């Protein structure tokens, strides 16, 4: 059976801490995140291994899975880059499907903040396998007024990684 | 398999689904003259942290309905090249949600499709997609 075998520094994201039922982010597969040094390209990286249950009938990574992950990279990753821990609802997204990804590929997603206003966050998102970009997306997310809900209950699971875990 | 009672009359389950569609189904379809309507009944596994249907699930579903509209209208298989989505309102867990597409333009290679996803009370998602039409002679290979 295909193992996730995440590269060094990636920790599983626990989306459903203390929640009785599995939500979509957990249901679609195990997602990982890596936190690099502030201001670097790797400040927030989301990663996952492509499995059959994420694919279309032709054997490529399903567009729906790409869109789901890109959405998450924009709201969770983009929000992290600007220091927001709130849940940011997506207002609008555009996706360009420039190439396929295949079973066994390790996918990484990174966000770039274009602009933050009082109520909106504009980001660009790329999904890559190695150095190859296969999805380009742009997103507008709403920044709720007030404290809002913190980003669900998502936490990086440090229990398995021990001392190798990067600090936030 | 027993069909959930909230599935409206005339919808059949897409039993040939595999991979992502099967893992996030069941999805249903109804052919109504020129229109193909797809529907699903969101459960907790489709929800986000707010308890409403995840935007990624809605995106996957409207994309599938828009691709099906290309197949039904032009009799061509297609892959999505670009998808623009505007989130208009929340999709509620337990509400029957429907999506459909309309081919608004095409040539020999590309099709432009407008899509909508809606619940019993309001519009949820508006889409505009560009699809690349596969060769008429190409067989869709199915793996797994």
UniProtKB/TrEMBL annotation, chain A:
Gene Ontology MF terms in the entry: fatty acyl-CoA hydrolase activity
The keyword Cytoplasm belongs to this UniProt entry's keyword annotation: no
Keyword Acetylation: no
Gene3D superfamilies assigned to the protein according to its UniProt record, in alphabetical order: Hotdog Thioesterase
InterPro entries per the UniProt record, alphabetical: ACOT13, HotDog_dom_sf, PAAI_dom, Thioestr_dom
Domain Thioesterase as annotated: residue spans: 59-128
Xref: Pfam families: 4HBT
Keyword terms of this UniProt record: Hydrolase
Domain of life: Bacteria
Signal peptide stretch: none
Family membership: Belongs to the thioesterase PaaI family.
Protein name, per record: Thioesterase domain-containing protein
Native species: Reyranella soli
TrEMBL record, chain B:
Keywords, in A-Z order: Hydrolase
Gene3D superfamilies: Hotdog Thioesterase
GO MF annotation, one: fatty acyl-CoA hydrolase activity
Family matches, as InterPro entries: ACOT13, HotDog_dom_sf, Thioestr_dom
Similarity section: Belongs to the thioesterase PaaI family.
Domain of life: Bacteria
Protein name: Putative esterase
PANTHER family: ACYL-COENZYME A THIOESTERASE 13, THIOESTERASE SUPERFAMILY MEMBER-RELATED
Classification via SUPFAM superfamilies: Thioesterase/thiol ester dehydrase-isomerase (SSF54637)
Keyword check for Hydrolase: yes
Annotated ranges, domain Thioesterase: 51-118
